[in-house]
Design brief:
Layout (H helix, E strand, L loop, with lengths): L21 E2 L6 H17 L7 E5 L14 E5 L26 H19 L15 E4 L17 E5 L8 E5 L9 H16 L2
Antiparallel strand pairs: 1-2, 2-3, 4-5, 5-6
Helix pairs in contact: 1-2
Length: 203
């Protein structure tokens, strides 16, 4: 499988001799799989013709970025195995952290970030885009204010696609992650439902 990352390879490291990245086995990373299914709904609803992204495993022993943990690293990749960005299971196994975050909202946010990074860098397009302000959105806790920063954990809201607005304090939640289809114009929503029915009929 072809693959891609921006991790640098040192002079004594040869990617050809290390374990090769591979698609994650079904059920191996259940929380990340479930989160990716949710984000893929948004991706395929808003980018017609785009195939679902997949989880790719970079096995232990594969050259990784400076400071990365030992153990398999999981990335969100295009169907051909190319990815960009951080792993979705950044944890410290030696400190007893679980292989995946325990909190489903955290997993969903991390996976949404990873999908966005891969799409924007490798497909070269801003995604997703707020229809009202024509700007890129980001996953945030519901009710995020303009001065929110990533270390805040006091929001009980589910992850949403959040728009900064026009820069004059008009930031707003656009849609829960996984429900962008509901924000599409009626004609596009109907076309999407027809396409989904056709796909279900061929299963």
């Amino acid at each position: 499988m072809s693959y891609f990352s921006y991790f640098s390879i040192g002079p004594d490291q040869d990617r050809q001799h290390g374990p090769q990245p591979r698609r994650a086995d079904p059920g191996q990373w259940p929380k990340s799989e479930a989160a990716l299914t949710v984000v893929n709904r948004d991706l395929m609803a808003t980018l017609p013709g785009q195939d679902a992204l997949v989880l790719t495993v970079v096995p232990q022993g594969e050259p990784t970025s400076r400071g990365a943990i030992d153990g398999d690293q999981i990335y969100v990749a295009l169907p051909d195995g190319h990815w960009h960005g951080d792993s979705v299971n950044a944890c410290d196994l030696e400190e007893g952290d679980p292989p995946e975050p325990d909190d489903a909202r955290t997993v969903l946010t991390v996976v949404a970030d990873a999908v966005q990074a891969t799409v924007m860098e490798l497909l070269r397009q801003v995604w997703p885009v707020c229809r009202e302000h024509k700007t890129g959105m980001h996953p945030r806790p519901a009710g995020t204010t303009e001065d929110w920063f990533g270390g805040e954990t006091d929001s009980d809201g589910p992850p949403v696609w959040w728009c900064r607005g026009s820069g004059d304090g008009e930031c707003h939640d656009v849609s829960p992650v996984g429900e962008l289809a509901a924000t599409l114009p009626g004609k596009q929503r109907r076309a999407l439902r027809r396409s989904e029915r056709r796909q279900q009929g061929h299963r």
